Amino acid sequence: MKIAVVILNWNGKKLLEEFLPSVVEHSKEATIYLVDNASTDNSIGFVNSNYPTIKIIRNTINGGFAKGYNDALQHIEADIFCLLNSDVEVTENWITPILEVFEKDANTSIIQPKILDYKNKDYFEHAGAAGGFIDKYGFPYCRGRLFDTLEKDSGQYDDIIDIFWASGACFFVRSEVFRRLNGFDERFFAHMEEIDLCWRAKNSGNVIKYVYQSKVYHLGGATLSKVNSKKTYLNFRNSLFTLIKNAKGPLFTTMFFRLFLDGLASIKFLFEMKPNHSLAILKSHVSFYWYLPYLLKQRKLQKNKIKYFDKTSVVIDYFMNKKTTFNCL
Asked: Which CATH number fits domain 3-218: 3.40.120.10, 1.10.455.10, 3.90.550.10, 3.40.190.10?
């Protein structure tokens, strides 16, 4: 089974200096590609000089995560794509258990490894942790991380299970499935495009798994930190995008409560003296309504939407019921 490890880069020379060594050392069974999104630093020169075996694909513009990968993957032939953030340290034998699951189960189309915090390696990391799920109002959440609470990894999620979505920080996908689904939705630009792709994959009958034997460490926030209001804007907007595009059944009640909860989040940011984040939520809703005709059109194209609703509201459980770990939900 041929695998390509594909790293998207934009002005990330410092990250490449820090994280490429582990990828090169522990990925002997893969072909490694660097996809450059029109960087203006010396990223490409650094890779050419120090890692001549890495294949480089140059994109002419910075189209974000979604377009960057869509454009590049057209030029890569492999059975499995591993989309790997440039701020991820991989570990010995991280690829083998993933390939074993793909080989054993033809229905498994997407896999996520265990993602731990690069700065505090005993703890899970925000982006994906031990596998992603969706609550009753369309909010994504993870085993091992609820909002700002990160769990210590004590083996509580050492399993191989079906999950709802896999993190784009380290995202393994069958190339045939990625292409059949027409890749990422480029209107997302960045953040949650992997959740949208996973949701479309689930609606098409594909299985998504978490495989604990594969372990990586993610720095996180290398492109947009959580204090950046643009991240807030993209997260709130794109979460609404995924809900409208992919959820089964009438959405009026769900959307009413969802927009209400977004409004509460905006007020919370104001009380926290973070007006830029509050304004970002408002802007996210304006953009959502602007794209609503497109989203509804995409919704109609999916004929076999699955019922996704969890019984829980992760927002209510976390902020009101003080349930701060996945196993308490």
From this structure: 3.90.550.10
